[in-house]
Amino acid sequence: MSELVNGGRVWIGRLWSGGVATAVIAGLIAVVGIFLARGLFDVPVLAPEGAGAWGDADTVTYALSCSLAALVATGLLHLLLVTTPRPLRFFGWIVVLATLVAAAAPFVVDSPITSKVATAIINLTVGAATGMLLTEVAVKAVPGRGAL
Question: Where do the TM regions start and end (predicted)?
Fold first, then answer.
């Protein structure tokens, strides 16, 4: 199935299957980041110190939130592809700004600086991966690529 986009077509199946794959990767980046922070560097990210390397339910919630954010980004990308000129430029700006907000967010809560830095690094990594992967997905989902 496809939709018209600026005189061309968007392959919806390709766009959304790439978005789901990106969501899985975003969640896994969160899990790996938390595991490395807790297990390797002994930094209590999203859990009390005694929670261990894999932590508690907060790890699952955080990973699912990262996956959901990637799916929301896919929806935004789909909307931009069918409604705006130069959709990847707008998408890039939105992803960069949202990633900066996510990276700054840990610094407004009361927790150790090491936890704040580790969380910010994880958020930056998830945001960068999501933006890069979805940009590539968009290029492959729009045949001819003239509208991008």
Answer: 20-41, 61-83, 90-109, 121-139
